[in-house]
Specification:
By secondary structure, the protein is an alpha+beta fold. It has six helices and seven strands, in the order E-E-H-H-H-E-E-E-H-E-E-H-H. It has a single domain (20-175), classed as HIT family, subunit A. A five-stranded antiparallel sheet has the order 3-4-5-7-6. Strands 1-2 form a two-stranded antiparallel sheet. Strand 1 (6-7) and strand 2 form a beta hairpin. Helix 4 (94-115) crosses helix 6 (166-176).
Length: 180
């Protein structure tokens, strides 16, 4: 049986399969990034105004909340965000700092319970030069990792495969969230 001829992105036939991820264009084009001065248009200020399901909020605290990343590095990629629109970690109050830390610990527990995460990348990208996509509103990433989770797809194909819809992931993690 002959191999089918496929069209390359430039229109020339080649033997490569294509994985299309059109949802990534929103991230590439900067959709959902603040567009105005101060906190105007800030998604991290708008998310808490939505229902947990619509905002993909996993849990809420007094000073901060936990939300699924719309553009995750791995399944279950969470962000811990203070409610207050603040850009720099030293500008957090003591209460905000403590709650961001406690929610991070709880996120790790929930991810281990719900998905058996083997490890984590945890960090804050401070400023655009450090990789912050939305530098105006501080947020800490909690990225679950598993042995062997880096395979040819992200390394060679520069593509992540997510096995679950974000709403299903939010529901799973909210159900696994540790009680206070």
């Amino acid at each position: 049986m002959d191999e089918p001829v496929r069209q390359s992105g430039a229109g020339s036939p080649d033997a490569f399969e294509r994985l299309w991820t059109p949802h990534r264009m929103a991230y590439i084009l900067g959709e959902n990034k603040p567009s105005g001065p101060g906190d105007e248009g800030c998604p991290f200020c708008e998310i808490p105004q939505r229902s947990d399901e619509d905002g993909l909020v996993v849990t809420r605290g007094k000073y901060a909340y936990v939300v699924l990343n719309l553009y995750p590095y791995n399944p279950g990629h969470l962000m811990v965000c203070p409610y207050r629109h603040v850009a720099d970690y030293p500008d957090l109050t003591g209460e905000e700092t403590l709650e961001v830390g406690e929610l991070t610990k709880q996120a790790m527990t929930a991810l281990r319970t719900a998905s058996g995460a083997h490890g984590f990348n945890i960090g804050i990208n401070q400023g655009p030069v450090a990789g912050a996509g939305i530098a105006a509103h501080l947020h800490q990433h909690v990225v679950p990792r598993w042995s062997g989770d880096t395979n040819f797809m992200p390394v060679i194909g520069r593509t992540k495969v997510l096995p679950q819809l974000l709403r299903d992931t939010r529901e799973l993690l909210a159900g696994a969230w540790p009680a206070d």
